Amino acid sequence: MQNTKRYRDLTVMDLGEKSLVFSCDTSSSSGEKPSDYLNVSPELTARYCLRVALLELLAVNANPTMTFNLIGNEINPTGQAMLEGIQSELDLAWYPEILQNGSTEENMPTSMTSVSVLLVGEVLNKEILIQRAEADNLVIQIGRRSVGPEVLEFEDKMIQYEDVKQLRDISAVREIVPVGSRGILYEAETLAECNNLKFELEENLIGNSDLIKSAGPATTVLVAVEKSIADTLLERFKEKEARVIGRLV
After folding, report:
1. Euclidean distance between CA atoms 20 and 24, whole angstroms
2. Sign of the CA dihedral running 98, 163, 52, 157
3. Which residue, 91, 85, 109, is CA-closest to 27?
């Protein structure tokens, strides 16, 4: 469709004055079933799955309107626990009443926990925060990169919904990019490519393996910013281990 395009992990459908924005995420092998790799509650698994898709919408200034929850397990007890986790995460992000729909697996027994989430949001086209980065913008990482058991250990250092909402309100912040399984360097280079630019990594970070590891459930974001605001953001988010990782050229 000519009015639909992919931007990073998002699908954007232009409806004229506004756009629908679609984001999704999936999580498997984290739960309380015998074949799960990471032993955590199904509630937590579903919460973090929703978190990824929700942060993707919020980062481009889209307002979530509905979620489709695709649970690869039985409704009771696993599915019900996941739905409670999804609702608690929506409450946390101040979207307690958005429309929900979905499906569960009732035909086959399952030995591994699995959940996927599809979120739909909308935004006025003049307010969507995509393809706004510019040459000479600095790229700042905010939030500690964590995956697996690290997420629980460093939860207080993860990027939060309120942080993203604050960043959106700063005019010198050009774009916000949540980082997931493909890592910080991949997302920085994709950000540059989407804006017909190149990413130049800070010299002291060349060869840093942390940049290519998964960031789990969007534990960190990259922010393309005008140089004038960089020091202010580094100070404001120093407890989230904010640092300049490079620049767009």
Report:
1. 14
2. negative
3. 85
